[in-house]
Amino acid sequence: MIFSLAPILGITTSSYRNAFHKHFGGMTKYYAPFVSAVNTTVENPNLLKDLSPAKSRPLQINGAEMIPQILSCDGVLMRKLIIKMADLGYNEINWNIGCPFPTVTRKKRGSGILPHAQLIDKVLNDAMKDIPCKLSIKMRLGLNEETEFRDVLKVISQYPISEVIIHPRTGKQAYSGKPYLERFAEAVELYGKPIAYNGDIFDDESFFRIKEMFPNVTHFMLGRGALSDPFLARRLCGNPDFDNETKIKMLRNFHDDIFHSFDVSFGSVNKDIDNKPDGICNKMKGFWEYAAVHLKNSEQFIKKIHRSKNVRQYLDVTEQYFQNDPDWIDNGIYYFLRSNLDEN
Ligand SMILES: Cc1cc2nc3c(=O)[nH]c(=O)nc-3n(C[C@H](O)[C@H](O)[C@H](O)COP(=O)(O)O)c2cc1C
Predict the structure, then answer these.
(1) What pairs with residue 196 in β-bridges?
(2) Ligand 1 closest atom vs CA 224
(3) Which of 81, 212, 275, 285 could cysteine-pair with 37, CB 3.0–4.6 Å?
(4) pLDDT tens digit string along 205-264?
C-alpha cells in the first residue's frame, strides 16, 4: 500500500515537499500543484522553475517520486509541456481534470472538461502522441453530476494511462458535502484497473473506514489531512507515533526549514529581518492554515499570524507561540472547513 501527498496549490511547493519528506516521510509519491499549458511562444522561465531537477533531487535521493501536474484542455499544448517536463527528468506527468475553481472550469479545464468526454478523447489523442513518459490522471466524479465519470472512464480506458486517481466529489461541490463513496465503488468496478482514492482522509479512523470499504485500493492520496497532521502517513504505514513534545519540536523544525527555503528563494537570507520581503510572511500564512489544526490554543495564534504584516511581526508571533507551552491535540480545529475566519 502506498500513500502520496496531494497537490495543494500555494502550499505544496518544492520547499514544502522536500521539508515534509525530510521530517516526516510516509509518502512514496509527491504530486506538484498544476502548471497550466498556455499558448505562448515565449517560454516563461518561472513556469517550470519549481520543477527544476535541483528542486526535485532531495525527494529522489530519499527514494520518493515527484510527479508534476498539468492543467489543460488543449492536447497539442499539453504534449509540448509533457515533453518539457519529461526533459527535466520526470517519468510520470499527471493531468488534472478535477480542479473545481470556476475560473478554471469555465474554460473547460480541470473538472470543467468532465461533461465533455469527446473533448477528453481529443486531448488524450493529441497529448499522448509519442510522449517519452507515463501520463496519469487525477479527476473528480463529474462537474455537475456525480455520474459523468462513467463516460469519462470509458474514454480513458482506451489510452495507456498509467494511473487514475479519483476524488469522489463533483466540481460543483468543491469541498462541501461528503465524497460519494458508492460512486467511487462503481468507478472501480467499471474501470477494471486499479484506481487510487483521494478525499477526506483526516485521521486514522477515516482512513481505516475507507480502506475497509475498498480493500483492493492500494494507493491513497492524502491532502488536507496530511498537511494538518503530517505524522498521519507515517503512522498509517505502521510506524509508532511520537509523543506530543516530540511532535511539537518536529513541527517547529519543519516550519523553520520551509521558512528558510522561502528566504533562500527570495534571495534574502543575508538580509536584516526588517528587510526581508513580506512575501515570505504571506507564504507562511498558507502553511499555518493547515499546520495549526492540531495545535492547542491555535485560534488566537492563527488570527495573529493572519494579522502579521511583515517578517518581523510574523516571526515574533511564531516565536511567542512556541515559547508559550505549545501542545499537540488530537481533535483539532479544521480552519479550512470553515467558510471564514472570524476577523476578531
Ligand atoms: C487550496 C487547495 C489547492 C489545491 N490545488 C490542487 C492542485 O493544484 N492540483 C490538484 O490536482 N488538486 C488540487 N487540490 C485538490 C487536492 O489535491 C485534493 O484532491 C483535495 O484536497 C481532496 O483531498 P483531501 O480531502 O485529502 O484534501 C487543491 C485543494 C485545495 C484545498
Answers:
(1) 165
(2) 27
(3) 81
(4) 999 999 999 999 999 999 999 999 999 999 999 999 999 999 999 999 999 999 999 999
Q: Which three cell numbers stand for residue 303?
A: 488570527
CA distance 113 to 104: 10
**What does residue 90 show for φ and ψ, rounded to 5 degrees?**
-85, 140
Q: How far is the CA of 6 from the centre of ligand 1 (A)?
A: 6
Cβ atoms of residues 154 and 117 within 8 Å: yes
Give the separation between CA 225 and CA 127, rounded to whole angstroms.
33
Can you state the angle between helices 181-191 and 204-213, rounded to 10 degrees?
40
- Whose Cα sits closest to atom 28 in ligand 1? 8
Average pLDDT in the chain: 94
The C-alpha R_g of the chain, in whole angstroms, comes to 20
Amino acid at 103: T
197: its cell numbers: 482514492
Average pLDDT over residues 41-65: 82
pTM here? 0.96
